Amino acid sequence: MKKFVVFFLVVFFSLIPSFALELDLSVDEEIKKKYNSSKLNYDVLPNLPKVDNSQNQAQTSVPKTQPIYSTTVPQITKIDPKDAIKLPKWTKFQVKSNQTISDSLREGTNISFTTTTPVYKKYITVPTGSKLNGIITNSHRAQVTGNGGLVVIKITSLTYNGKTYAVNGKITKANYKKIFLNNIKGKRQYLKGIEKQVNKGENFYKKAKIATNKLSNNPILVVISPIPMVVGVAGYAGATVLSPLTGLTNKGGNLSIPSGSQFEIKLLEDAFIAK
């Protein structure tokens, strides 16, 4: 019986390859009848459009837009005060800025403003749309000592009826805020630095107090419970005492006033305009 089983298995396994080969050839014949095997890849796959990567390879750069500042000084019209109309000292002009004014601008940068309201004086009216020109005489970025950024602008000329006349003026208001000594400043952060340091000391004291309360509730550690409180009080006192010094390490605020902002300009000397 065992011999018969072995004989049957040998015959069965010997027939499998031939059967598989016959099946494979029959399937291959069916494919050849229906399809041209030389063109099979082209018939089955769709005709995909060719992709042009030349445009993708070219990197397009986006131009950065920056405010444009004049590098030329307007030509001043010389005039004899005897034959001119006087704009008296302390005359004020309400104007808007024609560019962004920031503490990143260097000394010597030209700045211009446009009047937003007419100015009425004896024998003369300076209309809306007249131009006042100035120059940055000093500037610096925000400082680590707590000082904010700074811009100082000197008003040097007035363009009226197509001619430019020399004037001497200063900025007295920027965005409706008073400006002292012609210094347009960023926010000073020194006091904020002191407050920040004191708050750190207070938070340290609160944490020490919590630790003391936890230790006092433990019968074993109650003996050392006052230690965190003592350390917390010392830390709070030290932070408060040192806050005037550590406040100096706090950086001030940067200064940036966008184009179109409202300013007030005041003449420091009499100016003379042609009749």
Q: Name the poorly predicted regions.
A: 2-28, 37-51, 53-68
Order of H and E elements: HHHEEEEEEEEEEEHHEEE
At CATH level 3, the topology of the domain at 81-187 and 253-274 is Lipocalin
What is the CATH first-level class name of the domain at 81-187 and 253-274? Mainly Beta
Helix content: 25-40%
* CATH A-level architecture of the domain at 81-187 and 253-274: Beta Barrel
User: How far is the N terminus from the C terminus?
Assistant: 138 Å
Protein architecture, described:
There is one protein chain. The protein has a 6-stranded antiparallel β-barrel with strand order 2-4-7-8-9-13. Strands 1-14 form a two-stranded antiparallel ribbon. Strands 3-12 form a two-stranded antiparallel sheet. The N and C termini lie far apart (138 Å). The protein has helices at 2-34, 40-44, 54-57, 190-216, 226-246, and strands at residues 84-87, 92-97, 101-102, 110-115, 119-121, 124-126, 131-140, 150-160, 163-174, 177-178, 183-185, 256-257, 262-267, 271-274. The model is unreliable at 2-28, 37-51 and 53-68 (pLDDT under 50). The chain is built from 5 helices and 14 strands. The longest helix is centred in the first third of the chain and has 33 residues, at 2-34. It is rod-shaped, with a radius of gyration of 43 Å. Among the domains are: 81-187 and 253-274, Type IV secretion system, VirB10/TraB/TrbI (Lipocalin); 190-249.
